[in-house]
Structure formats: C-alpha cells, structure tokens
Design brief:
With about 220 residues, the protein is α+β, with helices and mostly antiparallel strands. The chain is built from nine helices and five strands. It folds into two domains: about 30 residues, no CATH class; about 140 residues, Beta-Lactamase (2-Layer Sandwich). The longest helix is centred in the middle third of the chain and has 19 residues. The protein is globular and about 60 Å long.
C-alpha cells in the first residue's frame, strides 16, 4: 500500500524509501554507486551519450548538481572560460550550480547571468521543495547566500524572453559562445542513484559557436 501511494503520487524513489521506513518497513529501492559492476551497462550508456554529443559540451550530474563526468567538449568549454589547460574535473569535487552562481566561478563570463541564474535558482528551489532532501535544501541555502542571488526571486521577466529557449551567452577575452541546454534523465529507473542522474547537453545557438567547438576538437 505504501508503494502504491508513492507511485500514485509520483514520489521519487528516495521519498518512497523514506515512507517505507516511517511505516516500519525496509527500503524497497537500492542506492548504488555508479562504479558498482551491476551498473556497468548504465555507465556504458552514459559514456556513449557523452561521446555522441561531441564536439559540444555534455555533463553528467547528480540530484545536487555535483559533477560525475564530462566529455571533451565540456573540457574545451571550461578551458575557454578559465584558461585552464587541464580542468580539475577529476581531481577535485565540482558542483555546477555553485560554479554558475558563485562570484568567483563562471558568473563573470556569462553576459546574461541574471536571466540564467534566475532560471537555475528556480529549478533548484523546485527540487528542494519536491524531494525533501537535506542535501538539496543545503545546496539551495548555499546558492541563496551568494551576492545578488536571493534578490533574483523578485524578478519576473528574464532577459531574452522572446527566445524559444534560454540562451547562455559566454564571453571571455573577446571570444563569444551562445549555447542552450537540454536535460535528459534515465527512463524507468529502479535505483535511487539512477533516478537522480541528469545528463545536460549544450547546443550551439549560432554558426560562430558551432565553428568554435569544431575547431577545438581538431
């Protein structure tokens, strides 16, 4: 009955487990690390999706926007923005939400930062309200503590409202990139970790951006 209620309410698997525990039952859904052998086929699928999206950036993140992996296009974008020849994606934890909103992160390089940040913070707020996870709430508090972020909630109309998608306009040292993103998830997940994985794909919005990524892959 608990599982039927959770399914009917479209509750995430993590919350269904929490309901089961509250009712005195063991969790029904596992939460495995991506490195476990059982998830090898999923890892292969993620690697395939990242590779097929080259030369454009693609990232795999968890529910709290912690970076799990990235393709070469993503590394090229990071190098363009930070001038780092070897981004520390694999040697230090990276949170894409923090990188986007922090003053010492990508914010100085996003021309339409207010519009992008407004769209993003509303998404994190929705996640925090929907999943009830302490980690998501802590991430939201951390993001709202950055300068000007909390004030964005008072805004109603982001820039470039006439566009069918929200562009992300990056600019550094005279170079300009215009991208938009899509988010993919794994269908019919039967594992908490898999349900919370997101794959973010960046696409060029103009010909100069497309050509720039093409050159970087040669």
């Amino acid at each position: 009955m608990v599982l039927r209620l959770g399914t009917s309410l479209s509750l995430p698997l993590r919350q269904q487990n929490a309901l089961l525990l509250a009712a005195g039952y063991a969790p029904a859904w596992e939460e495995r690390d991506l490195s476990t052998p059982d998830l090898a086929v999923v890892n292969s699928a993620l690697d395939y999706m990242l590779a097929q999206h080259e030369p454009y950036p693609a990232f795999v993140v968890d529910r709290c926007w912690n970076l799990l992996r990235a393709n070469q296009g993503a590394l090229n974008l990071t190098e363009f923005l930070t001038a780092a020849t070897d981004p520390a994606f694999s040697s230090a934890p990276v949170n894409l939400a923090v990188s986007l909103l922090a003053p010492d992160g990508l914010r100085p390089f996003i021309v339409n930062w207010e519009a992008v940040a407004l769209h993003f913070i509303r998404g994190v707020e929705a996640d925090a309200h929907a999943d009830g996870m302490s980690k998501t709430a802590e991430l939201l508090d951390r993001l709202l503590a950055f300068p000007d972020v909390r004030a964005l909630s008072a805004l109603t109309t982001p820039e470039d409202a006439q566009s069918p998608v929200l562009p992300m306009h990056f600019q550094r040292n005279g170079g300009s990139l215009r991208l938009f993103t899509t988010i993919a998830t794994l269908g019919t997940p039967r594992d908490v970790t898999l349900e919370e994985i997101r794959i973010e794909f960046f696409f060029p919005m103009d010909e100069p951006t497309r050509q720039a990524f093409g050159r970087w892959m040669k």
